[in-house]
Amino acid sequence: MSTPSQEDYLEAIWVLTQEKGYARVVDLAERLNISPASASKMVRRLHEAGLLTYERYRGFSFTARGRKTGRLLYARHQILERLLTHLAMGAPEEIHRIVEGIEHHFDVSRLGQIERLVNYIDVHPEWWQAFLDDSP
């Protein structure tokens, strides 16, 4: 993939399009707490990278590759949040903050084992509780 910043943008665009059906530069800027000019600049970069289609004054949308990447980045975030929640790493806001700090160190193509573990914990909560109870 690209830079952590580009990943954050793609993930935010994915979430916006899931929530609203579309994403605009102003929505993206608001979600990421940045200026619309900064968001517009990154949208153009993502267009040049083949992840978005962009027309000045008309907006942008995912390319097939961008949609797949955005979906995987969002899934990575969700898997890591679920894992840290199971580990009782704090309140949801704190877990979100922690995931924002570590998610870029996990290649989306290598999250399969973590996802399998989280799914196993979801299906076998008694196993997980026994594990937690046995921890020092």
* Gap between N and C termini: 38 Å
Number of H/I helices: 7
General form: elongated
How is the largest sheet built, in terms of strand order?
A: 1-2
Would you report the number of β strands? Answer: 2
Domain count: 2
Report the structural category.
mainly alpha
Write out the CATH superfamily name of the largest domain: Winged helix-like DNA-binding domain superfamily/Winged helix DNA-binding domain
Strand content: 5-15%
Which CATH architecture of the largest domain would you pick? Orthogonal Bundle
The secondary-structure element order is HHHEEHHHH
| Average pLDDT over all residues | 93
The CATH class assignment of the largest domain is Mainly Alpha
Low-confidence stretches: none
The third-level CATH topology of the largest domain is Arc Repressor Mutant, subunit A
Radius of gyration: 17 Å
Give a quick account of the main beta sheet: strands, pairing sense, barrel closure.
Answer: 2 strands, antiparallel
Helix proportion range: 55-70%
Describe this structure in words.
It is a single chain. It is built from 7 helices and 2 strands, in the order αααββαααα. The chain has 136 residues and is mainly alpha-helical. The protein folds into 2 domains: 4-68, Winged helix-like DNA-binding domain superfamily/Winged helix DNA-binding domain (Arc Repressor Mutant, subunit A, Orthogonal Bundle), CATH 1.10.10; 74-134, Diphtheria Toxin Repressor, domain 2. The protein has a two-stranded antiparallel ribbon. A hairpin with a 3-residue loop joins strand 1 and strand 2 (59-62). The chain is elongated and about 60 Å long. The model has no long low-confidence stretch (mean pLDDT 93).
